[in-house]
Amino acid sequence: MKIGYPCVNEAMDCSAANTFRLASYADERLVAAVTANLACLRRMLAWNVAQGLLFFRMGSGIVPFGSHPINTFPWQTHFAADFQVIGDYIKANNLRVSFHPDQFVVLNSPSVDIVQRSIQELIYQGSMLDLMGLDGTAKLQIHVGGLYGDRELALSRFAAVHATLPAAVKARVVVENDDRLFPLRDCLRLHAETGVPILFDNFHHECLNHGEPMAEALRLAAATWHPTADGVPMMDYSSQALGERKGKHADDLVDDQFRRFLQEFHGLDMDLMLEIKNKEASALRAVTILRELGLSVPAPNIPSPPLSLPPDPNAPPKVRRAKKAVSSE
DNA sequence: CGGGGTCAAGGGACA
DNA sequence: TGTCCCTTGACCCCG
Protein backbone atom coordinates (compact mmCIF):
# COMPACT_ATOMS: atom_id res chain seq x y z
CA MET A 1 0.00 0.00 0.00
CA LYS A 2 1.57 3.23 -1.17
CA ILE A 3 0.48 6.62 0.11
CA GLY A 4 0.39 9.76 -1.94
CA TYR A 5 -0.99 13.27 -2.29
CA PRO A 6 -1.99 15.37 -5.27
CA CYS A 7 0.08 17.82 -7.26
CA VAL A 8 1.22 20.37 -4.71
CA ASN A 9 3.79 20.10 -1.95
CA GLU A 10 3.18 22.98 0.42
CA ALA A 11 6.46 22.47 2.23
CA MET A 12 8.55 23.14 -0.86
CA ASP A 13 9.57 26.43 -2.32
CA CYS A 14 8.90 25.53 -5.91
CA SER A 15 5.83 24.91 -8.02
CA ALA A 16 5.33 22.46 -10.87
CA ALA A 17 2.41 24.52 -12.08
CA ASN A 18 4.11 27.52 -13.58
CA THR A 19 1.99 28.88 -16.36
CA PHE A 20 0.93 32.09 -18.07
CA ARG A 21 -2.07 33.60 -19.77
CA LEU A 22 -3.14 32.43 -23.18
CA ALA A 23 -3.00 36.03 -24.34
CA SER A 24 0.71 36.16 -23.57
CA TYR A 25 1.61 32.85 -25.18
CA ALA A 26 5.14 32.64 -26.54
CA ASP A 27 7.41 29.65 -27.15
CA GLU A 28 10.04 31.22 -24.89
CA ARG A 29 7.59 31.40 -22.04
CA LEU A 30 6.53 27.84 -22.67
CA VAL A 31 10.09 26.55 -22.52
CA ALA A 32 10.78 28.50 -19.35
CA ALA A 33 7.64 27.22 -17.66
CA VAL A 34 8.15 23.58 -18.62
CA THR A 35 11.80 23.74 -17.58
CA ALA A 36 10.84 25.09 -14.17
CA ASN A 37 7.96 22.63 -13.80
CA LEU A 38 10.05 19.57 -14.59
CA ALA A 39 12.82 20.72 -12.25
CA CYS A 40 10.30 21.16 -9.45
CA LEU A 41 8.69 17.82 -10.23
CA ARG A 42 12.05 16.12 -9.83
CA ARG A 43 12.56 17.77 -6.48
CA MET A 44 9.10 16.81 -5.29
CA LEU A 45 9.56 13.19 -6.30
CA ALA A 46 12.89 13.04 -4.49
CA TRP A 47 11.32 14.65 -1.43
CA ASN A 48 8.55 12.06 -1.55
CA VAL A 49 11.01 9.18 -1.80
CA ALA A 50 12.91 10.47 1.21
CA GLN A 51 9.65 10.65 3.17
CA GLY A 52 8.33 7.25 2.16
CA LEU A 53 5.55 8.69 0.01
CA LEU A 54 5.64 6.47 -3.05
CA PHE A 55 2.44 7.55 -4.77
CA PHE A 56 2.05 10.92 -6.46
CA ARG A 57 -0.44 12.69 -8.69
CA MET A 58 1.32 15.02 -11.05
CA GLY A 59 -0.34 18.27 -12.01
CA SER A 60 -2.04 18.71 -15.35
CA GLY A 61 -0.20 21.93 -16.09
CA ILE A 62 3.35 20.68 -16.52
CA VAL A 63 3.16 21.77 -20.14
CA PRO A 64 0.99 24.89 -20.25
CA PHE A 65 -1.62 24.65 -23.00
CA GLY A 66 -0.43 21.11 -23.55
CA SER A 67 -3.42 20.23 -25.71
CA HIS A 68 -4.30 23.68 -26.96
CA PRO A 69 -3.89 24.41 -30.67
CA ILE A 70 -1.92 27.54 -29.86
CA ASN A 71 0.87 25.35 -28.57
CA THR A 72 2.68 24.13 -31.63
CA PHE A 73 6.06 23.92 -29.93
CA PRO A 74 7.59 20.40 -30.19
CA TRP A 75 7.90 20.04 -26.42
CA GLN A 76 7.79 16.25 -26.71
CA THR A 77 11.15 16.15 -28.46
CA HIS A 78 12.61 19.24 -26.85
CA PHE A 79 12.10 17.82 -23.35
CA ALA A 80 12.37 14.13 -24.21
CA ALA A 81 15.54 13.62 -22.18
CA ASP A 82 14.11 15.43 -19.16
CA PHE A 83 10.98 13.30 -19.16
CA GLN A 84 13.08 10.18 -19.47
CA VAL A 85 15.27 11.11 -16.52
CA ILE A 86 12.15 11.57 -14.42
CA GLY A 87 10.70 8.30 -15.65
CA ASP A 88 13.91 6.48 -14.81
CA TYR A 89 13.82 7.94 -11.33
CA ILE A 90 10.22 6.84 -10.88
CA LYS A 91 11.01 3.31 -11.94
CA ALA A 92 14.24 3.04 -9.97
CA ASN A 93 12.45 4.07 -6.80
CA ASN A 94 9.32 2.03 -7.35
CA LEU A 95 7.08 5.10 -7.39
CA ARG A 96 3.48 5.08 -8.57
CA VAL A 97 2.26 8.12 -10.47
CA SER A 98 -0.89 9.35 -12.13
CA PHE A 99 -2.58 12.34 -13.68
CA HIS A 100 -6.09 13.60 -13.05
CA PRO A 101 -7.24 15.61 -16.06
CA ASP A 102 -9.74 18.07 -14.72
CA GLN A 103 -13.39 18.80 -15.17
CA PHE A 104 -13.09 19.93 -18.76
CA VAL A 105 -12.35 16.42 -19.94
CA VAL A 106 -15.81 15.06 -20.66
CA LEU A 107 -15.81 11.98 -22.85
CA ASN A 108 -19.57 11.59 -22.81
CA SER A 109 -20.44 15.11 -23.90
CA PRO A 110 -23.04 15.37 -26.68
CA SER A 111 -20.71 17.93 -28.26
CA VAL A 112 -18.30 16.36 -30.71
CA ASP A 113 -16.01 19.33 -30.23
CA ILE A 114 -15.79 18.88 -26.46
CA VAL A 115 -15.16 15.16 -26.90
CA GLN A 116 -12.37 15.83 -29.36
CA ARG A 117 -10.71 18.39 -27.08
CA SER A 118 -11.06 15.96 -24.20
CA ILE A 119 -9.31 13.23 -26.15
CA GLN A 120 -6.55 15.65 -27.08
CA GLU A 121 -6.05 16.44 -23.40
CA LEU A 122 -5.84 12.73 -22.58
CA ILE A 123 -3.31 12.28 -25.36
CA TYR A 124 -1.24 15.17 -23.99
CA GLN A 125 -1.17 13.82 -20.44
CA GLY A 126 -0.71 10.24 -21.55
CA SER A 127 2.18 11.21 -23.77
CA MET A 128 4.05 12.62 -20.77
CA LEU A 129 3.80 9.19 -19.15
CA ASP A 130 4.89 7.61 -22.45
CA LEU A 131 7.90 9.92 -22.59
CA MET A 132 8.77 8.84 -19.07
CA GLY A 133 8.79 5.28 -20.29
CA LEU A 134 6.14 4.20 -17.79
CA ASP A 135 3.90 1.20 -18.37
CA GLY A 136 0.11 0.97 -18.14
CA THR A 137 0.14 1.07 -14.36
CA ALA A 138 0.60 4.87 -14.57
CA LYS A 139 -2.96 6.08 -14.93
CA LEU A 140 -5.13 8.90 -16.21
CA GLN A 141 -8.03 9.36 -13.83
CA ILE A 142 -11.27 10.88 -15.13
CA HIS A 143 -14.95 11.08 -14.28
CA VAL A 144 -17.78 9.71 -16.38
CA GLY A 145 -18.97 13.21 -17.28
CA GLY A 146 -22.39 14.80 -17.48
CA LEU A 147 -25.87 13.36 -17.09
CA TYR A 148 -27.65 15.35 -19.78
CA GLY A 149 -31.00 14.21 -18.45
CA ASP A 150 -30.54 10.62 -19.57
CA ARG A 151 -28.32 8.36 -17.51
CA GLU A 152 -28.49 5.43 -19.91
CA LEU A 153 -27.56 7.52 -22.89
CA ALA A 154 -24.81 9.28 -20.95
CA LEU A 155 -23.26 5.96 -19.95
CA SER A 156 -23.50 4.48 -23.42
CA ARG A 157 -21.86 7.55 -24.93
CA PHE A 158 -18.94 7.17 -22.54
CA ALA A 159 -18.55 3.54 -23.58
CA ALA A 160 -18.75 4.40 -27.26
CA VAL A 161 -16.10 7.12 -27.03
CA HIS A 162 -13.90 4.98 -24.80
CA ALA A 163 -13.84 2.36 -27.55
CA THR A 164 -12.39 4.92 -29.96
CA LEU A 165 -9.53 6.09 -27.72
CA PRO A 166 -6.00 5.56 -29.01
CA ALA A 167 -4.60 2.33 -27.53
CA ALA A 168 -1.91 4.20 -25.61
CA VAL A 169 -4.54 6.32 -23.88
CA LYS A 170 -7.05 3.54 -23.36
CA ALA A 171 -4.45 1.52 -21.50
CA ARG A 172 -4.18 4.32 -18.93
CA VAL A 173 -7.70 5.66 -18.51
CA VAL A 174 -9.49 4.78 -15.29
CA VAL A 175 -12.88 6.09 -14.20
CA GLU A 176 -13.69 7.45 -10.76
CA ASN A 177 -17.05 7.26 -9.00
CA ASP A 178 -18.23 10.80 -8.31
CA ASP A 179 -20.27 12.38 -5.54
CA ARG A 180 -23.27 13.72 -7.41
CA LEU A 181 -23.92 11.98 -10.72
CA PHE A 182 -22.31 8.60 -11.32
CA PRO A 183 -21.87 6.31 -8.32
CA LEU A 184 -19.96 3.07 -8.09
CA ARG A 185 -22.79 1.04 -9.61
CA ASP A 186 -22.69 3.02 -12.86
CA CYS A 187 -18.91 2.69 -13.00
CA LEU A 188 -19.23 -1.07 -12.55
CA ARG A 189 -21.54 -1.18 -15.53
CA LEU A 190 -19.04 0.77 -17.58
CA HIS A 191 -16.33 -1.62 -16.50
CA ALA A 192 -18.42 -4.60 -17.58
CA GLU A 193 -18.95 -3.01 -20.95
CA THR A 194 -15.55 -1.47 -21.65
CA GLY A 195 -13.08 -3.03 -19.23
CA VAL A 196 -12.17 0.38 -17.78
CA PRO A 197 -10.83 -0.01 -14.24
CA ILE A 198 -12.60 1.87 -11.46
CA LEU A 199 -10.67 4.25 -9.29
CA PHE A 200 -12.64 4.18 -6.05
CA ASP A 201 -13.23 7.34 -4.03
CA ASN A 202 -14.46 6.54 -0.53
CA PHE A 203 -15.80 10.03 0.17
CA HIS A 204 -17.72 10.21 -3.08
CA HIS A 205 -19.12 6.78 -2.27
CA GLU A 206 -20.31 8.06 1.08
CA CYS A 207 -22.04 10.93 -0.72
CA LEU A 208 -23.64 8.79 -3.44
CA ASN A 209 -24.16 5.03 -3.40
CA HIS A 210 -26.65 2.20 -3.62
CA GLY A 211 -26.10 0.90 -0.14
CA GLU A 212 -22.90 -1.03 -0.79
CA PRO A 213 -20.99 -1.32 2.49
CA MET A 214 -17.55 0.26 2.31
CA ALA A 215 -15.65 -3.02 2.46
CA GLU A 216 -17.76 -4.44 -0.33
CA ALA A 217 -17.36 -1.31 -2.45
CA LEU A 218 -13.59 -1.49 -2.05
CA ARG A 219 -13.59 -5.12 -3.08
CA LEU A 220 -15.79 -4.50 -6.13
CA ALA A 221 -13.69 -1.58 -7.37
CA ALA A 222 -10.39 -3.34 -6.77
CA ALA A 223 -11.56 -6.34 -8.77
CA THR A 224 -11.80 -4.17 -11.89
CA TRP A 225 -8.02 -3.71 -12.02
CA HIS A 226 -5.94 -6.24 -13.90
CA PRO A 227 -3.15 -7.22 -11.52
CA THR A 228 -0.33 -6.82 -14.04
CA ALA A 229 -1.65 -4.55 -16.80
CA ASP A 230 -3.20 -2.02 -14.41
CA GLY A 231 -1.21 -2.66 -11.27
CA VAL A 232 -2.33 -2.29 -7.67
CA PRO A 233 -5.72 -0.55 -7.61
CA MET A 234 -5.57 3.15 -6.88
CA MET A 235 -8.09 4.97 -4.74
CA ASP A 236 -8.78 8.47 -3.46
CA TYR A 237 -9.26 8.91 0.26
CA SER A 238 -10.85 11.90 1.90
CA SER A 239 -13.53 12.79 4.40
CA GLN A 240 -16.16 15.40 5.04
CA ALA A 241 -15.07 18.81 6.28
CA LEU A 242 -17.08 19.19 9.47
CA GLY A 243 -19.62 21.97 9.46
CA GLU A 244 -19.16 22.58 5.76
CA ARG A 245 -21.19 21.87 2.67
CA LYS A 246 -21.68 18.18 1.98
CA GLY A 247 -18.94 17.00 -0.32
CA LYS A 248 -16.30 19.48 0.84
CA HIS A 249 -12.98 17.84 1.60
CA ALA A 250 -11.59 17.98 5.10
CA ASP A 251 -8.63 20.20 5.93
CA ASP A 252 -6.81 17.57 7.96
CA LEU A 253 -6.57 13.83 8.19
CA VAL A 254 -8.69 12.61 11.11
CA ASP A 255 -6.58 9.85 12.63
CA ASP A 256 -9.30 7.68 14.13
CA GLN A 257 -11.46 7.96 11.04
CA PHE A 258 -8.53 6.88 8.90
CA ARG A 259 -7.71 3.96 11.19
CA ARG A 260 -11.31 2.80 11.03
CA PHE A 261 -11.26 3.05 7.27
CA LEU A 262 -8.15 0.91 7.05
CA GLN A 263 -10.05 -1.86 8.80
CA GLU A 264 -12.34 -2.11 5.77
CA PHE A 265 -9.55 -3.47 3.59
CA HIS A 266 -9.32 -6.97 5.06
CA GLY A 267 -5.99 -7.59 3.41
CA LEU A 268 -6.78 -5.86 0.12
CA ASP A 269 -3.83 -3.93 -1.31
CA MET A 270 -4.48 -0.49 -2.79
CA ASP A 271 -2.48 2.67 -3.38
CA LEU A 272 -4.04 5.58 -1.49
CA MET A 273 -4.19 9.15 -2.73
CA LEU A 274 -5.03 11.44 0.16
CA GLU A 275 -7.22 14.23 -1.13
CA ILE A 276 -6.92 16.27 2.00
CA LYS A 277 -6.46 19.97 1.88
CA ASN A 278 -3.16 20.08 3.69
CA LYS A 279 -1.59 17.77 1.10
CA GLU A 280 1.70 16.18 2.06
CA ALA A 281 1.20 16.83 5.77
CA SER A 282 -1.74 14.43 5.88
CA ALA A 283 0.04 11.96 3.64
CA LEU A 284 2.95 11.88 6.08
CA ARG A 285 0.54 11.39 8.94
CA ALA A 286 -1.06 8.48 7.06
CA VAL A 287 2.33 6.83 6.60
CA THR A 288 2.96 7.14 10.33
CA ILE A 289 -0.39 5.57 11.13
CA LEU A 290 0.21 2.69 8.73
CA ARG A 291 3.55 2.00 10.36
CA GLU A 292 2.02 2.10 13.82
CA LEU A 293 -0.50 -0.47 12.68
CA GLY A 294 2.24 -2.61 11.22
CA LEU A 295 0.76 -2.42 7.74
CA SER A 296 3.22 -2.85 4.96
CA VAL A 297 4.56 0.41 3.72
CA PRO A 298 7.79 0.34 1.78
CA ALA A 299 10.50 1.90 3.88
CA PRO A 300 11.95 5.05 2.39
CA ASN A 301 15.09 4.93 0.34
CA ILE A 302 15.42 1.18 -0.01
CA PRO A 303 16.81 1.47 -3.50
CA SER A 304 19.47 4.08 -3.75
CA PRO A 305 18.33 6.84 -6.03
CA PRO A 306 20.16 6.99 -9.33
CA LEU A 307 20.26 10.74 -9.06
CA SER A 308 21.31 12.94 -6.23
CA LEU A 309 18.52 15.37 -6.65
CA PRO A 310 17.34 17.57 -3.84
CA PRO A 311 18.02 20.27 -3.19
CA ASP A 312 18.99 21.12 -6.70
CA PRO A 313 21.28 24.13 -6.78
CA ASN A 314 21.14 24.13 -10.55
CA ALA A 315 17.41 24.37 -10.64
CA PRO A 316 16.21 27.10 -12.93
CA PRO A 317 15.18 30.32 -11.30
CA LYS A 318 11.96 30.02 -9.43
CA VAL A 319 9.27 31.56 -11.47
CA ARG A 320 7.08 31.51 -8.46
CA ARG A 321 7.02 34.57 -6.30
CA ALA A 322 7.19 34.62 -2.55
CA LYS A 323 4.08 33.31 -0.86
CA LYS A 324 3.63 35.90 1.81
CA ALA A 325 5.27 39.20 2.22
CA VAL A 326 7.42 39.37 5.28
CA SER A 327 6.43 42.53 7.05
CA SER A 328 9.85 44.05 7.29
CA GLU A 329 12.98 43.47 5.34
C1' DC B 1 4.15 46.58 -4.76
C1' DG B 2 0.29 44.14 -3.00
C1' DG B 3 -4.63 42.88 -3.33
C1' DG B 4 -7.93 41.04 -5.93
C1' DG B 5 -10.16 40.16 -10.38
C1' DT B 6 -9.54 36.84 -13.76
C1' DC B 7 -8.05 32.80 -16.26
C1' DA B 8 -8.80 27.61 -22.31
C1' DA B 9 -11.72 24.45 -21.16
C1' DG B 10 -18.00 21.83 -18.56
C1' DG B 11 -21.98 20.95 -16.26
C1' DG B 12 -25.56 21.02 -12.71
C1' DA B 13 -28.69 23.13 -9.18
C1' DC B 14 -31.64 26.50 -8.61
C1' DA B 15 -34.48 30.63 -9.15
C1' DT C 1 -32.26 32.15 -19.10
C1' DG C 2 -29.10 33.77 -15.76
C1' DT C 3 -26.32 33.15 -11.55
C1' DC C 4 -23.53 30.63 -8.67
C1' DC C 5 -21.03 26.57 -7.44
C1' DC C 6 -17.34 23.07 -7.85
C1' DT C 7 -11.79 23.70 -6.79
C1' DT C 8 -7.46 25.90 -7.06
C1' DG C 9 -3.33 28.09 -8.08
C1' DA C 10 -1.23 31.51 -10.30
C1' DC C 11 -1.11 35.35 -13.55
C1' DC C 12 -1.16 40.06 -13.95
C1' DC C 13 -3.72 44.41 -13.95
C1' DC C 14 -4.51 48.34 -11.43
C1' DG C 15 -4.84 51.34 -7.65
TrEMBL record:
GO MF annotation, one: endonuclease activity
Record keyword Cell inner membrane present: no
Keywords: DNA damage, DNA excision, DNA repair, Endonuclease, Hydrolase, Nuclease
Biased composition range(s): Basic residues: 318-329
Family matches, as Pfam families: UvdE (PF03851)
Chain intervals for the UniProt region annotation (Disordered): 298-329
Sequence ranges of Pro residues compositional bias: 300-316
Protein's UniProt keywords contain DNA damage: yes
Xref: SUPFAM superfamilies: Xylose isomerase-like
NCBIfam families (UniProt xref): uvde
PANTHER family per record: UV-DAMAGE ENDONUCLEASE
Protein name as annotated: UV DNA damage endonuclease
Organismal lineage: Bacteria, Pseudomonadati, Bacteroidota, Cytophagia, Cytophagales
